[in-house]
Amino acid sequence: MKALKIFGLHDLRVVDKPVPQPAAGYVRVKIKASGICGSDKWMWNVDSLIDDIGGHEVSGEIDAVGEGVTSLTAGDRVMVNNVVGCGKCPACRMGAFVMCPYWEGKNDVGNGFGEYLVAPERNCMRLLPCIDYIDGALLMDNWGTPYGGLLRAGIKPGMDVLVNGCGPIGQAAIALCASMGAYVAAVDPIQFRRTKALANGAKLVFSPDELPSAAHDFTEGMGVHAVFECSGKGASYENCLKALRIGGCFVAIGENAKYMINSSEWLIRKNLTVYGSWYSTMPQANEVMHLAMQKRIDARAFLTNTITIDEAPKIFGDVVNCADGIIKCVIVFD
After folding, report:
1. Whole-prediction pTM
2. Cα separations (Å) of 244 from 211, 224, 259, 277?
């Protein structure tokens, strides 16, 4: 099969790899669509040859099943949750693999930038008939991740919400908040992404240097009910926290941010709630899929590029480095 392999810094090539075989309890998926995630940036920046194949935003068709698989058969159309828990704890039994206390990461589903992958039966969800493969590749992670954060924050109609970072995750957060009746403001340094945020439901857009005053201006000095930090930039934390009203909620979604927080001034005396939210559970992904089925969200609302696997090495750096004009890119397979 064709697969994208890392040969060193900024050096990705399409190579031939053996087709994987499903073990007991696993299925093999012939990949139809695979999204390039911001977290895939490591593949572009690693400076050594690596055999592992990245990619995890996947949908496709099951073409083989391992021993003991009972709920899925060849021909089923599925999207894949790439986080693999122990499969036995209470969280895993509920499909909340992200909450598994025994998760280590080493068994997570990869190989999304290849033509086939294997995944646990329990990590595959059938696509509804109206959901195509490109939509399926976007729903589990790109939409499910912010959706999980919105549930934690308890977003309701009429709430004032700030989304910081208008990349793919932020764009989905904007659209989801708007679909729930919230009044959404969005923040990003890139004009193209701010414009896209308006198209996806934001009422106001700002550049980072306009915070926190802009958030207080449009809320009559009170501050917003909730902030969704999707940029993963630690430097944004101070102004995002200061944009909140007393009793507000901060949800950290963007990965790898580091910042020293003044807990007394920014958290304690404002009675703030701070959540971390990672990826989505299987039930949450199912809810997002039904939102798409009901046309409450457009899964492709921020999709800017579809490419073949052979085109991936050339565009990969532009995608993960947020080049102007690119927000979301999906690799489409035959």
Report:
1. 0.96
2. 11, 5, 17, 18
